[in-house]
Every structure is written in structure tokens, then in C-alpha cells.
Amino acid sequence: MTVTTDRVHVYADEFDEVSRILARTTERVRLELIDGKLRSKAVPDGDHGRIIQWLLRICMQSRPELFLHPDQGLKVQAYRHGRARPDASLASNDAFVGQGEWADPGPVLMAVEVTSYDSDTDARDRVEKPRAYAETGIPVYLLIDRDTCEVTVYSEPDGVRYESARTVPFGKTVVLPGPVDIALETEQLKDWVH
């Protein structure tokens, strides 16, 4: 099988086949399908992983009935049959039990992305992901942006976009709205950017 990225649109069944093949041959590739376009995500660095650990601890302390599931693939965008792999998804502990690599996003209360230092993070994390998660109906999208040293909380999805977006610099407190209802003290994020 030849993998190319020069086609404008990729179908979900083609994407699933390529994803399965690559999963058997390498651990260094993380693929997504957003707006019918094949995307690859950078393998996270240590600071990226530490930010997810920090957020996991806060979520577990604030909402012990929930879990921050790292890297669970989600079926997004019904129209395009997209596949996204958020850095983490906040949902009940058993939300993805019995599901495969690409799970139903219905139980997800919040999708989380931490920017990577790669060339397409702007298009992927700041443009495509907010739209895909809003179209899917995920109530909250949390973007931890290491390039700008800001946290953006998107909420109130209307099926096309998020109607609310609040951005604060690292160091300020930001409240994740319902159904998440968690306050984040973001000062410590300053330690994990370079």
C-alpha cells in the first residue's frame, strides 16, 4: 500500500486501514483525519507529557468520578467521518471500555490539546480542532498553547463552532465551565515551555 498526502480528501475507511498498518509497524506516527485531510501529530516531548500529568492530577482531585484519558482516538465530524486523537479527553472512568481505537465522543466532557513545536500546530490545534470538536458537540475544548503561553477555553458548541472562547496568559486562573466545572491555576505551566 502506498501512503500519499497529496489527495485533497481521504475517506474514513481508507484512513482506518492506513492507521492499522502504521500501528503495527511503528510507534512514532500518530495520525488523524480532520476535514477529510490526513494529518500527523508530533510525538509529545517531556514537557508536553508533564502538562498532561499536571492536568490529570487536577481533574482527579476536583472530579474523582471522571478520568482524563490520554490519547484516546475519537470519531469526530459526522459529515467528514473524521478521526481525532486529542492529547486527553475528560470523561467517566469507563467511557471507552469495549471501544476500539476510535471511540464514540458522546461521553466526552472536554477535549484537551497541548501545542507541539511543529509546523502545522497552528492549523491543527487552533483552527481545525476547535471546529471539529464543536461540530461533534464536545462541550469544552481546552487548548494549552505553549507558543503563546496562553490557555484558551472554548465552550458552548453550536454544531458548527464554539460560541465562547476565553484566553488567559499562563499565571492566571481560568475556570473550565460546566459540565467540567474545574478551576485551573496556570502559574505552573510557565515551567514547561521553552
Instruction: Report on the biggest sheet.
Output: 6 strands, mixed
CATH topology: tt1808, chain A
Instruction: Summarize the amount of helix as a percent range.
Output: 10-25%
SS-based class: alpha+beta
Oligomer kind: single chain
What proportion strand?
25-35%
Described by the principal axes of the CA atoms, the overall outline is globular
Structure write-up:
- With 194 residues, the protein is of the alpha+beta class.
- It has one domain (44-192): tt1808, chain A (Alpha-Beta Complex).
- The protein is 24% helix and 33% strand.
- It has helices at residues 12-25, 46-62, 121-136; strands spanning 30-34, 37-41, 66-70, 73-76, 82-84, 88-92, 102-103, 110-114, 140-145, 150-157, 162-169, 173-176, 182-185.
- The strands form four sheets. The chain has a six-stranded mixed beta sheet with strand order 3-6-8-9-10-11, sandwiched between helices. A three-stranded mixed beta sheet has the order 5-4-7.
- A hairpin with a 4-residue loop joins β10 (150-157) and β11 (162-169).
- The longest helix has 17 residues, at 46-62.
- It is globular and about 45 Å long.
- 39% of the residues are buried.
